[in-house]
Write a structure and sequence with these properties.
Number of domains: 3
Oligomer: single chain
Strand order of the largest sheet: 3-2-1-4
Distance between the termini: 36 Å
CATH topology of the largest domain: Rossmann fold
Largest sheet: 4 strands, parallel
Number of helices: 17
Number of strands: 10
Strand content: 5-15%
Structural class: alpha/beta
Shape: globular
Radius of gyration: 22 Å
């Protein structure tokens, strides 16, 4: 195992039980990055983030600096922080929101200063009750400390931040649906173009939407410099990244690892990380980037945890959620449950997603219950092809957002990798795993 000695960038304070408090934050160097940023010009701060090559940690992996540079000049731009985190088995942002809210707030102020934004919103999934409570308490403390409000730390820059709880809809993790929700509307994704948030976002004004983990990296980058950040990782995948490891592993949890220098094998099997499979069982498949991502097999264990390295396998790191499934897993059941989730969470705006997800869920449920037919496998793949033509990765778009085109991923992966297991369900008229 080759676990690197990379510094903890966003989880260094989590060894303290009171990591969420202002006093602990200040005792561990908190708000030093913001104070440094305020001595620079906004353009210089943006240039530093761009030089760090910080990829967005929310799913798409778009460079944060480049996204900022796309912000259309307007009279009232906004910054929105996406803390919805609705992808199943993804819980890294949840951890940061609960355990280190001041780090998030400091990152928000740094980004707002670079963008010259005077109003920012932190959108947090409503089920994160403790996280919402702590973020709001941290905001109150930050105002009292002078890190927020009028004339931040005497710099002449002013910023107000509002915490907005979501209602628990998966689709509101998509940035334009999140913006609709912030405006008090139903969370329907917007058609792009023209509604790229950087051009037409919240309340029709230019808007930057960034993820919680992305924002949480900014204080370290400002304190230590872009060069120190790019010294970690390799290629486009610089710095460290949080991975939410779940499934049949001995030690599920959130781990901060240096990108590219660490592999799936390291994460899943290193004693100080995942610790291997429960009961010493064999690894069967890996979901590498949230349930939207195509699966990988044991033969891919030595793939580096990097944006491009995983993309070369026609899948993605996505939301940073990695699920390890052992040889007791029924892949038909796994694919069915994932599809059922997407079917229930579809906003219903696009026909391929609204109708196709329901058809796929019914067919998979039929196979899992023992009433399937061999022809169902072809029907499944044909339906997947209708939703995302070619059933490839990255998927072809037939829907306004990527929820619809992500639905075929688990189904196609399960059939391509474990077709015989589907046939056993059909021929034996029952699930062999009970």
């Amino acid at each position: 195992m080759a676990i690197t000695e990379a510094p903890r960038i966003v989880t260094s304070r989590l060894v303290h039980d009171d990591s969420h408090t202002l006093q602990r934050y200040l005792d561990t160097g908190g708000y030093a990055g913001l104070r440094k940023a305020l001595t620079m010009t906004p353009a210089a701060v943006a240039a530093e983030v761009d030089a760090a090559s910080l990829l967005g940690r929310g799913g798409a992996g778009f460079p944060a600096g480049r996204k900022w540079s796309m912000l259309r000049q307007g009279p009232l731009p906004y910054l929105v922080v996406n803390g919805d985190e609705s992808e199943p088995a993804t819980f890294k942002d949840h951890l940061l929101i609960e355990r280190d809210p001041h780090q998030l707030i400091e990152g928000v102020v740094i980004a707002a200063y670079a963008l010259q934004v005077s109003r920012a919103f932190i959108y947090v999934r409503g089920e994160f009750a403790l996280g919402l409570e702590r973020v709001q308490a941290a905001l109150d403390d930050a105002y009292d400390h002078g890190a927020l409000g009028r004339d931040v730390f005497g710099s002449g820059f002013s910023l107000d931040v509002v915490v907005h709880p979501g209602a628990g809809a998966y689709i509101c993790g998509e940035e334009t649906a999140l913006i609709e929700s912030l405006e008090g509307k139903r969370g329907f994704p917007r058609i792009k173009p023209p509604y790229f948030p950087a051009a037409i976002g919240l309340y029709g004004e230019p808007t930057v939407v960034n993820n919680v983990e992305t924002m949480s990296n900014l204080p370290w980058i400002m304190s230590n410099g872009a060069a120190a950040f790019t010294a970690l990782g390799a290629g486009r995948s610089t710095g460290t990244r949080l991975f939410a490891l779940a499934g049949h592993v001995r030690n599920p949890g959130v781990y901060e690892l240096e990108m590219v220098k660490t592999t799936f094998r390291d994460l899943i099997f290193a004693p100080v990380l995942g610790g291997g499979m429960i009961g010493g069982r064999q690894l069967k498949a890996i979901i590498p980037g949230g349930v939207s991502a195509p699966w990988l097999g044991p033969e891919h264990l030595d793939t580096p945890l990097g944006q491009d390295e995983v993309a070369d396998l026609h899948t993605m790191l996505g939301s940073g959620s990695i699920v390890a499934m052992d040889d007791t897993t029924c892949v038909v059941r796994a694919a069915w449950r994932i599809t059922r989730f997407f079917w229930r969470e579809s906003c219903g705006q696009c026909t391929p997603c609204r109708e196709g997800s329901g058809w796929l869920e019914k067919i998979l449920r039929r196979i899992e219950s023992g009433a399937g037919r061999e022809a169902d496998l072809d029907v499944l793949m044909d339906t997947c092809d209708a939703i995302a033509p070619g059933v490839s990765w990255p998927p072809q778009q037939t829907t306004i957002c990527v929820l619809g085109s992500s639905i075929p991923s688990s189904i196609a992966s399960a059939i391509r990798m474990f077709r015989d297991e589907f046939l056993v369900h059909v021929k034996e008229g029952a699930c062999p795993y009970g």
